[in-house]
Amino acid sequence: MPVIMIFWADHESCAGMLKRLRETGRLRFTIFLLALSVYCVALCAFRFLYAASSSYLFLIWNLALAFFPWLVTSVAVLRDVKSRAAILLIAAVWLLFFPNCLYILTDLIHLHRTESAPLWLDLILVLSFAWAGLCFGFVSLMDIEHFLRKRFNADRRMVAVLSVCMIYLAAFGVYVGRFWRWNSWDLLGNPADLMHFMFDRFTDAGNTYRVSGFTLLMGTLLNLMYFPFRYVRRTPGS
To answer: Using an 8 Å Cβ cutoff, are 87 and 105 in contact?
Structure first.
């Protein structure tokens, strides 16, 4: 009997979740994101078996990190969070991990010719994970925009400006992760060392130019990718 009750409770919970996904217009895109993630993991597993090499298995962990910001905002949307304090906390957690969604694009740096697998396979593999990460990130950013408009009464122009700024900030975070090898957890677990490290780097003019150049160019590219994505997602009937 307890087993039946647990199964029934799980069934009711799943039914309620599906209902909320339909009500919020997220069902089809959630299915797409999950299918894309399964495809990425399956392709990575195939590459592992084909090449007998674990070279690109790190992409699965990177995708899990990209999944987290989307999970945070999705739960908030499905639960229809109304408290401004709670939304600010959610936004802070989201912003801390948002660069992970964009970071996978820079994993293209790992591409190189190898005897174990064709280069085109590795290219498709990395691009698949990069696109999945971008989709998770862009949808989660749209969720943040939703809360800014609905709970803080921000107009569309202000929301767009904030999105541009957050993408540039995330581009800087990508540089910190890719080239300085710090990650989101360090800001929580080791903030003093991180701040000291960054202060030392910014006192070097050469580092400042490199960081500024990367942030400007990568941030601009990501903005030019995000806003068409945002437009298509909001087009009626799309």
So the answer is: no
136-164 core/surface letters (b: 16 or more CB in 10 A; e: else): bbbbbbbbbbebbeeeeebeeeebeeebb
Q: Provide the whole-model pTM.
A: 0.88
How many Cα atoms occupy the beta-carbon half-sphere of 195 within 13 Å? 6
Q: Give per-residue pLDDT as tens, 184-232.
A: 777 777 777 777 777 777 777 677 889 999 999 999 999 999 999 998 8
CA angle 139, 34, 72 (to 5 degrees): 45
Nearest to 228 by CA among 128, 134, 124: 134
The DSSP secondary structure of 106-136, one letter per residue, reads: GGGGG----SSS-HHHHHHHHHHHHHHHHHH
In this structure, the number of other CB atoms found within 10 A of the CB of residue 72 comes to 20
Alpha-carbon distance values, 70 to 51, 80, 118, 193 (Å):
32, 15, 32, 28
CA distances from 13 to 5, 23, 29, 34, 70 (A): 12, 15, 20, 19, 20
